Every structure is written in structure tokens, then in C-alpha cells.
């Protein structure tokens, strides 16, 4: 079955160009040009501490748009971009695996793995449990080294770099671990500030400014004083995402960002990832079991099976794949090539 593309989205190649959030909202008729200009003028008149406020927040505070409507506008734009990528999948490769093999506890987890991650897109890596997804993610940032093969970040082969060179490459990344990995003894502000204090020489005032901005971006403004055990599961995931954003990385790796969350919070996290991408244009790589929902939230999908890439391509293409293994995984049927019982 082929995807049905709304005729109104056929112009997606022209409409999906990267633009500032405010300009996208105007183009998608979410706000008027006059409202955006008024919001920009209002923000310019504010004190220095408030000039960096997000344009979306300013528009919400002025009553020109609600937060759910803002997120819906961004999701609509992401949909346009997904269609554009399906129609013309031109994208630079930022991460590449060539013949990567990894054996753990006597089991070959990655079996001559070849894959490519497109730059400045959201890529989802899916597949059955134990298929090598998390191990693949750890190889991307050099937390694991392949037994054979090579992992490239840009034009740099990780296996041939010195420790200093590898650390320089790692600074291009941030990673959100499956459980968030927040420090229980630190409040949210200090958790988010941790990578800046450990890896930069920024003044404390600048660190606090960045942290407060990131907390605002994930809707945790004013929550910096709370500790992880005072937060809900969804709030902990948002705090961990703020920590991933605070270093302003090029690439964000998300390991099961919606694991263990109820459907409403799962949906909220997906909207948050969309919002993050629209604001930053970072490359985002996300391991997810949220199938089939994840197909609506990414440009590119890689299906891992038995340590190899079973399929790789635009989300619309993979969603409607005729491959029986992929169809079974998406539908969750017990009957099919994947035998689990």
C-alpha cells in the first residue's frame, strides 16, 4: 500500500524551508503578520532578562495563540517537511556505520551493520527488543567501540581518533538516557547546569540564564528548585531533555524518551521533540517502541532486525512497507516471520 498524500501538501518542498518559529506561524496562518510584529516589538521593549524569551511564549502571554494551538501548528509544519522528504529525500549524512560488528556475552548484537543518519532531520530507530538499537546509539557517540567496522561522524572515523579528538567529537552530541539519569541529590537547576559546569568555563550567571531558558523551553519554568523525586515521570523526561539541550549540541540522541509513560504524556513528549526540532534544527536520533505513532513524528526511519538494517527511508515509505517482517512489527501480530512465543 502506498501512502496517500494530501494534495494540499504537494507543495511541501517549497513550504518546508527552515524558517524562524514566528515566520512559520504566520505562513501557516496560526497568527497574523501584525500579531507577530507586535509580539516582536513587545519583546524588544522588555528588560534584558526577558529579551531572550521564546517568541511562542510571548505570543501565548499576549493571548494571540494557546499553547496547544502552537504545538499543532508546529506539528503541521513537521508533516509538511515529512512529505517533502518523502518526495525528495536529499539530505547530508552526518553519521555513518560501515560494516560494524559487535558481540556481547557471546551473542552478535550488530552484524555487519551499515546505516546512515541524515543531518538536520528526526530519525527514529525501531525494531524488536534485543535487536541492537541501544548498542547502535552508544556506538554513535563512542561509548562503545565496534569489534569490526567503522563509525563516522561527519568525515571523522571514531575508531581512528585520539582521546582528545574523540572528546571533541562527543561535544557535538547530547544524550537522553532511557530513565533520564538525573542526579537524585541535585535539584533540577543543578542537574541541567551540570554539563555546562563540567565542560565549559562559562560564568555562573550565563549558566543560570541558559538553564532557565532551557527549562522554559520544556515547560518547566520556575521548577528549578525541585528535586527529581518531586517530579512526575513526564517531568523527569522533560528535565533530562533540558539537560540535553543546554549544551547547544548538533546531535541529540534519545533512548526511548516515552518509555513507561501513559499515552497522554507520551504524546506530550512527542510534541516537545517536534517543538525542539523546529526551534533548533538539531539532528535528532530517537530509539522508540511507540509504533505506529512514531511514524508521525520523524522524517526518517531505520528498522533494525537481528543486528542489521532491514529497511531505511522516509517515514511515509517505511510506514507502508510491504515487507512482512516490518508489517508484523507495526501491527503487533503474533503470526508472522518474527517468532516470540
Could you characterize the architecture of this molecule?
Helix content is 42%, strand content 19%. It has 341 residues and is an alpha/beta fold. It folds into two domains: 7-87, no CATH class; 94-331, P-loop containing nucleotide triphosphate hydrolases (Rossmann fold, 3-Layer(aba) Sandwich). It has a six-stranded mixed β-sheet with strand order 6-7-8-3-9-10, sandwiched between helices. The chain has a four-stranded antiparallel β-sheet with strand order 2-1-4-5, covered by helices on one side. Helix 9 crosses helix 10 and helix 9 packs parallel to helix 11.
Name the features.
single chain; 341 residues; alpha/beta; Rossmann fold; 6-stranded mixed β-sheet; 4-stranded antiparallel β-sheet; 42% helix
Tell me how many strands there are.
10
Q: What is the count of helical runs?
A: 14
Report low-confidence residues grouped into runs of 5 or more.
none
Biggest β-sheet strands, sense, barrel: 6 strands, mixed
Classify the helix fraction into a percent range: 40-55%
Radius of gyration: 21 Å
- Spatial strand arrangement across the major sheet: 6-7-8-3-9-10
Q: Distance N terminus to C terminus?
A: 29 Å
**Which class best fits the helix and strand makeup?**
alpha/beta
The total domain count is: 2
Please give the CATH architecture of the largest domain: 3-Layer(aba) Sandwich
For the residues shown, what is the average pLDDT?
88
> In what range is the share of β-strand residues?
15-25%
**Structural shape:** globular
* Succession of helices and strands: HHHHHHEEEHEEHEHHHEHEEEHH
| CATH class categorisation of the largest domain | Alpha Beta
* CATH topology category name of the largest domain: Rossmann fold
